[in-house]
Amino acid sequence: MGLDSLDRAVTALRSGQLVVFPTETVYGLGANALSAQAVARIYDAKGRPADNPVIVHVATIADARALCRHWPDTAERLAQRFWPGPLSLVLPRARHVPDIVTGGLDTVALRIPDHPIALEFLRRSGLPVAAPSANRSGRPSPTRVEHARDDLGERVAVYVDGGPCAVGLESTVVDLTGAPRILRQGGVPRADLEAVVGSLAAAPDTKRPLAPGMKYRHYAPQVPVVVVDRVDGDVRSEMIARFGRPCFVVGLENALDEKDMVRVAARSDADVWAREIFGLLRDLEKRFDAIVVERVDEGGRGAAVMERLLKAARA
Ligand code: TXA
Ligand code: MG
């Protein structure tokens, strides 16, 4: 990391400009969360619909509490256990949080990211930072600074490079305004949350979007994505007949050995799939006519990986 680029990032943030910065989940496109004008630039740069609220990043639990009207005991327990980390908590917003941050909702999503550069950026700036993933709306989320640069180019004042993201998919979003429930699956698996708060309200039914952002086209590379149970010889021939030159993204268990196959990890090794999947989609879209991916096991982060893949496939 350049300390130098961090200084420039803080200066840019304070003057209402956009900064791309690393977190452990994906790169964020940050703006001063207390400035409606600065946050408007995020929507503009991403091409993001105005009713889709953004997550506010803070350095400490005290900073998070200052942005909400009510801090329930479940928030305290989840924050103590998972922050800094890939969990966003939705709480009743304080009055000084601008409407544009919350998409007009009366709630705000908050998180402390688990990345030394992100934390240093937040501490030095002394501001809460509104930041969606740093991709153009609908594209796969950026897990390397180049991905963000490819999508956003000159729209951003400063890019802070923190290397590849360790988690690789976005935070889990949990609504705490009523009985705790998951709005978006992500870096913290359901079972880990339930170990702290007891059982969570039902799994999100993809037919009715819970987080406003879940209803939009998402994670889509420029070529079609198809999710299959297993890639065997028949599936491979069928996909080649259908697409011309597809790439096959498979588990280590797969016995086929062809040049058009990429082996990620065992299908049960969800953390590796989570870390690699967005980068693979961005890399393979440049070189193939379609991306055919094997289903992974849903334990741990596997459920969130599958949710992203199925969305990319529907787009
Ligand atoms: O890991 C992450 O969460 C990354 C990094 C940069 O922190 N950020 C991220 O932001 O994924 P974004 O904007 O791509 O996704 C935020 C999700 C959207 O689905 C949005 O609708 C939901 O969180 N969300 C934000 N504020 C909300 C609120 N007040 N109520 C319900 N959902 C909210
Ligand atoms: Mg996003």
Topology (elements, then pairings):
Layout: H1 3-14, E1 19-21, E2 28-32, H2 36-46, E3 55-57, H3 61-65, H4 73-82, E4 87-92, H5 99-102, E5 107-111, H6 116-125, E6 129-130, H7 145-152, E7 158-159, E8 172-175, E9 181-184, H8 190-197, E10 225-228, H9 233-243, E11 246-250, E12 261-263, H10 270-284, E13 290-294, H11 302-314
Parallel strand pairs: 1-7, 3-5, 4-8, 10-13, 11-12, 11-13
Antiparallel strand pairs: 1-2, 2-6, 3-6, 4-5, 8-9
Descriptive terms for the model:
315 residues; alpha/beta; nine-stranded mixed sheet; 16% strand; globular; binds threonylcarbamoyladenylate; binds magnesium ion
Describe the structure.
The chain is of the alpha/beta class and 315 residues long. It is 34% helix and 16% strand. It has a 9-stranded mixed sheet with strand order 7-1-2-6-3-5-4-8-9, sandwiched between helices. Strands 10-13-11-12 form a 4-stranded parallel sheet. The longest helix has 15 residues, at 270-284. The chain is globular and about 60 Å long. 47% of the residues are buried. The model has no long low-confidence stretch (mean pLDDT 94). Bound molecules: threonylcarbamoyladenylate and magnesium ion.
